[in-house]
Amino acid sequence: DGVYKSTDGGKTWKNMGLKDTRHIGDIQIHPHNPDVVYVAALGHAWGQNEERGVYRSTDGGESWEKVLYKSNKAGSHDISMDPNNPRIIYAAIWEGQRYPHAASSGGEDSGLWKTTDGGNTWTDITRNPGLPKGLIGKIGVAVSPAQSGRVWALVESEDGALFRSDDHGETWQRLAEDMDLRTRAWYYLHIYADPSDADTVWVLNMPCKKSIDGGKTFMDIPTPHGDNQDLWIDPQDSNRMIEGNDGGAAVSFNGGLSWSSNLNQPTAQFYHVTTDNQLPYNVYGSQQDNWAMRLPSIDFEGAISWKNYTEPGGGESGYIAIKPSEPYTVFGGGTGTGLGHGRLRAWNPRTGQARNVTVWPEVHGFGAGTIDHKYRFQWTFPIEVSPHDPDTLYVASNHVHKSTDEGASWDVISPDLTRNDPSKLGPSGGPITLDNSGAEIYCTIFAFHESPHEQGVFWVGTDDGLVHISRDGGANWKNITPPDLPEWAMINIIEPSPHDPATAYVAATRYKLDDVAPYLYKTNDYGESWTKIVNGIPADEFTRTIREDPARRGLLYCGTEVGLHVSFDDGANWERMQSNLPVCPIWDLVVKDNDLVVATHGRAFWILDDITPLHQMQDGVATNSVHLFKPRDTPRYKFYQRDWGKPTEGVSYMMTGPVTVAYRTVKDQFGNEKKEMLNAGTNPPDGVIIHYYLNEKPEGDVKLDILKNDEVVKAFSSSEDDSPLKPQAGANRFIWNMRYQGPTEVKSDKPKDRRAAMMEAGLSPRAAPGTYQVQLTVNGNTQTQSFNVLKDPRIDVSESDLEAQFNLKSQIRDKVSEVNEAVNQLRSIRKQVEEWEERTKGNEEIANAAKPVKEKLEAIENQLVIVKGDTPRSSPSRLAEKLGALTSMIEESDAAPTRQSYEVFNELSARVSEQQGALRQVIDNELAEFNNKVNTTRVPAIVV
Question: Does pTM surpass 0.90?
Answer without folding.
Answer: yes
